[in-house]
Design a protein that fits this description.
The chain is α/β, with parallel strands linked by helices. Helices cover about 30% and strands about 15% of the residues. The structure holds 2-amino-2-deoxy-6-O-phosphono-alpha-D-glucopyranose.
Length: about 260
């Protein structure tokens, strides 16, 4: 696992956006770049940097096909708190991606099982995900794979924990009762199948989970700890999120980035 610690969120976001743009640009022209994407506040800085790069003519998304991680059950595409709405508002409406190449789970489906199976099939039909960008919940979850989720899970419906509903209530007028109780989400196994994974983590409220994910064992109670088994995974974080890591861990990973072999 690579851990890149930046002084602040802005620097971490810029670094990650440059990295992702580089990956898109270096993909062979006749082959689409398959990109997994998250919602939440953590990736907003990356999205706005990627939009800037597109507007400056530095990157195009014509060759990119996307799969979003998750969607709330019961929210329609035009509901302002749906992840559909979020993605168009904060990213897709501002770049040159072909709308036909955007995939987001349908939270209004009448057959969740079928919807989730079809999503996995659609990912496979594209040859798998090249690069999965993600965030992390304060309880260490990836996508909506709450503590206790199987580490080989596939796309399915999940019940959200009270902690996640509390965290996400800020997007629902601070009212936990308005947060849907279930969501459709890619599984831990779906994320792990991606050829590369990058997770953006910022803020003190993530420090406890980041310590568990980086310094403790693989554990379904912190589902992002699955990254320890991924051959090409990077966590990009700010110093606040790194606050509970040991001095040795911070020193080691910072020196690695400086090219100092320790
Ligand atoms: C939700 C999403 C996750 C996201 C997490 C953290 O639970 N399903 O994909 O990583 O929130 O959100 P934030 O970035 O707002 O802290």
């Amino acid at each position: 696992m690579r851990l890149v610690i930046h002084q602040n969120y802005e620097k971490a976001s810029l670094w990650a956006a440059n990295y992702i743009a580089g990956k898109i640009i270096s993909k062979k022209k006749n082959k689409p770049f398959i990109l997994g994407l998250p919602t939440g506040s953590s990736p907003l800085g990356i999205y706005s940097e990627l939009i800037k790069m597109y507007k400056d003519g530095k990157v195009s998304f014509k060759n990119v096909r996307t799969f979003n991680m998750d969607e709330y059950v019961g929210l329609s595409k035009d509901h302002p708190q749906s992840y559909h709405y979020f993605m168009f508002e904060n990213f897709f409406n501002h770049i040159d991606i072909n709308r036909k190449h955007i995939h987001i789970l349908d939270g209004m489906t009448k057959d969740a099982e079928k919807e989730c199976k079809q999503y996995e099939k659609a990912i496979n039909a594209e040859g798998g995900i090249d690069f999965f960008l993600g965030g992390m919940g304060s309880d260490g979850h990836i996508a909506f794979n709450e503590p206790g989720s199987s580490l080989v899970s596939r796309t399915r419906i999940k019940t959200l924990t009270e902690e996640t509903k509390r965290d996400n209530a800020r997007f629902f007028d601070g009212d936990i009762l308005k947060v849907p109780g279930t969501a459709l989400t890619v599984g831990v196994g779906t994320v792990m199948d991606a050829r590369e994974v990058m997770i953006i983590v910022n803020g003190r409220n993530k420090a406890r989970a980041l310590r568990a994910v980086v310094e403790e064992g693989i554990n379904h109670m912190w589902t992002l700890s699955c990254l320890q088994m991924h051959p090409k995974a990077t966590i990009v974080c700010d110093e606040e999120a790194a606050e509970k890591l040991s001095e040795e861990t911070i020193h080691y990973f910072k020196n690695m980035e400086k090219g100092i072999i320790c």
